[in-house]
Amino acid sequence: MRRRLGWFALAVIVGMQAGTVFAPLGSIGSTRVADWIDLLTPFAILGCAAMVMDRAGADRRQWLLLAVGGVMFSLGTGLHISANSVSNVDDATVAEASIVHLWDEIVSHWVWYTGLFIVLAALAAALHGETFRVGALGVVVAALFALTLTNTYIEGGVPWLGMAFLLAGVVIGWRWRPTTTGRLLMLVGGIGLTLLVGWGVYWYAIDGRVFPQFSELGWI
After folding, report:
1. Best exposed site among 53, 96, 170, 199 by fewest CB in 10 Å?
2. Model confidence band, residue 215 (pLDDT cutoffs 50, 70, 90)
3. Which pLDDT score is estimated for 100?
4. Residues pairing with 27 in the sheet
5. How far apart are CA 4 and CA 51, in angstroms?
């Protein structure tokens, strides 16, 4: 179980940051290599999630929840890649069109991230009765997972949605304590919520901005 859950975490850590991780690979014609690689993200994340669900003996309702989340996640990924590619064209009139911004920065992100949250909910429900050792490496992976979610919500421009999702994880984890799943939910949700809130408070305190994106700061 730990190995399968670890592969799922790795798929999320890399997949949700594929645009940044693989950006140095450059372009193929008018397309980015990172976008081609990102097409594999739903396969990797949902495939690993299915392996965890299978190992946990998930019931029909949990598989249905995974299916709903998987469809939303895949749809959001496709919308984001497509609209983001349009926003990268040289024609400023096209790239900066409000309709492009709508699909690239708003609709795709809400659908994409909500789908991932539902996938995580399905996994949590399936793992609720499971007991397995997390260990020091597991804590590190959970911290990286939380950092990935935080980065995603900040750069995706949906910090308030992210706080709601992370807070839900903390609350459910607290209710499920002292199960392994409960501890993991509190760990990931607690770290992520602390980082996300801390980011907002820090930037508001130093220059009055709330949740600036990394790209706005020129970091990526």
Report:
1. 96
2. confident
3. 87
4. 32
5. 7
Residue 64 has a pLDDT of 97
Query: Largest alpha-carbon pair distance within the chain?
Result: 55
The SS3 assignment for 27 reads: strand
Q: How far is the C-alpha of 207 from the C-alpha of 220, rounded, in Å?
A: 20
Which two structure tokens, joined as six digits, stand for 114?
A: 């909500």
The domain limits of the chain are: 1-129, 137-208
Q: Specify the pLDDT at position 96.
A: 78
CA distances from 60 to 42, 43, 67, 114, 126 (A): 21, 21, 10, 21, 10
Q: Radius of gyration of the chain from Cα atoms?
A: 18
Structure tokens at 126: 């399936």
How many angstroms separate the CA atoms of 97 and 155, rounded? 20
Transcribe 181-206 into DSSP letters: HHHHHHHHHHHHHHHHHHHHHHHHHH
41-64: buried (b, 16+ CB within 10 Å) or exposed (e) per residue? bbebbbebbbbbbeebebeeebee
DSSP letter string, 135-183:
HHHHHHHHHHHHHHHHHHHHHTT-HHHHHHHHHHHHHHHHHHTTSHHHH
